[in-house]
Write the structure tokens for this entry.
Amino acid sequence: MRILHVAAEIYPLVKTGGLADVVAALPAALAARGLDTRVLVPGMPSVMSGVVDLKRVMRFGPAFGAAVVTLRLGRMPDSGLPVYVIDAPFLYRRDGNPYLGPDGRDWNDNHRRFALLGWVAAHLASGELDRRWQPDVVHSHDWHAGLAPAYIAQSPALNTATVFTIHNLAFRGLFPLDCHTDLGLLISGAMQSGIEFHGQLSFMKAALVHAKRINAVSPSYAREICTSEFGWGLDGLLRDRGDDLSGILNGVDYRVWDPRTDKALTRNYDAENPRGKKVCKLTLQGELGFARSTKIPLLAVVSRLTEQKGLDLVLEALPVLLAAGGQLVVIGSGDADVEAGFRAAAAAHPKSVSVYLGYDDAMSHRITAAADILLVPSRFEPCGLTQLYALRYGTLPLVRRVGGLADTVIDATPATLDDGTANGFVFDQATGCALASRIVDACALFRDSARWRQIQKRGMVQDFSWDDSAARYEALYRRI
Ligand code: ADP
Ligand code: GLC
């Protein structure tokens, strides 16, 4: 079976969040199961320079504003996974964030930039772009690749199976209605109702209408998006498609996230031999200018700083966190007001709060290893990967009971502590108070080092690898 994954990001070449981690790891896990798997991505500068052995497959154009487009095939530098790259300098050779210009606003031709991604996927499916490899399944991810199922549905002769994964329904890929003239879709009748969303175009809706199967990145999120609270206006459509909608939990790529082999760490460690974690913690505390002590609970945030992630709640809970004797290290970037809030907190408490505003892959690994507790107080969370990474690193996640966080973190209660299933802390209300109260509990439990080690160990040996989820995806492909 031949599977084509279509996405805007792929770790380590282009990454703004967990989507990139999934697009690198899931296809590799499917390939390891014997499926003939390739990925299609736009030729952003880091992709053009990072994919190895690039060879030309087909040249065509003009298309979507680009005079010439060259489809190339190469391999990922680490996994060797085959990758098609759309080399369209006019659309993609722009440094920085893949979606935003230097002014922090969406590029004004994003509808063309990502329509081309879906269009190329559909023409790979039809065999017109590469006669030597034609996918049986086109599996696209998030709105950026949302037009792939629509273009495929527009060609009735094509019987390619289409799967669409929702990583984040909040980003619906909205554009003014008149942009449709740039897309080469026949926007009339069923196709019009399949992409029009309250007087705009939505690439996300196009995918939800046209894909043969839809899945969300955790079972809880698959249920939540069918409600008006989490549905972003698409819940009615998702309820209608209920028979075709499933939830498959993301996995962890333990080749990238394993404290035993992680090259970013000061000292490696694992569940059997956890002493290296203390070295990681003491080293980081020293670098941050904090008191160096394994007895002080070190709390961490590794996150985009957006409304979704609920980090304003951490700012609200900060006085309580400090009163409980905790230290806080934050790495992230995003909304200006949240950034400013953390900057001010670090200035006010330089010996217990440290904030790195930016993106740094190695630093995110070091913080995950050094911390005792990882805070993930999200308002909604389709899956969440950082809590899964934290578990393997012996860092207890403290999360809100929502989406994939609810599916993966088992709250430490008297019952779960007794039966040995607890692996972290969970709170319910999206308020600073509720978070603060769980932080106090976690810091108290931290001082019971025997209990703490028991919970830590439980998380470190849990298996969230891709094996199980890749098998579920394979079963889904076989069904359609
Ligand atoms: P989301 O995709 O919603 O941002 P996830 O938890 O699925 O949330 O994935 C976030 C990914 O981005 C993780 O791999 C995390 O380690 C990484 N990450 C988040 N912020 C930063 C940062 N400032 N620097 C480096 N990596 C980061
Ligand atoms: C999205 C979600 C996150 C999920 C990631 C990978 O960015 O916000 O919860 O883990 O995609 O699927």
